[in-house]
Amino acid sequence: MLSGTLAPLRCDELSERLSELIDGERDPAVLVRVRLHVARCPPCARLALELLATVEAMHGLSRLVRPPPSALH
Ligand SMILES: [Zn+2]
Question: How far is the CA of 58 from the centre of ligand 1 (A)?
């Protein structure tokens, strides 16, 4: 029974879970709950997109500024 362990997130909980995901938490159950919430909550979907876009930009930046392994030898 998935429904018993996947209680709906409230909007304020969603932002906390997003922060955890961005901090590096990769709990699949958390991911599922976040996805379920944003699927039916447009304001949180927009928030999640903005946060994730920021993270993607940061990751892209870290790749850009980090020298390739070959440069370290
Ligand atoms: Zn929400």
Answer: 25
* Structural contact between residues 33 and 6, judged by C-beta atoms closer than 8 angstroms: yes
Q: What is the largest CA-CA distance in the chain?
A: 53
Is-above-0.85 flag for pTM?
Answer: no
43 CA → ligand 1 middle, Å: 6
| Mean pLDDT for back-to-back runs of 10 residues, the chain (73 residues) | 65 90 83 91 93 83 76 70
**Distance from residue 45's CA to the centre of ligand 1 (Å):** 7
Structural domain spans, the chain: 2-64
Distance from the CA of 9 to the center of ligand 1, in angstroms?
8
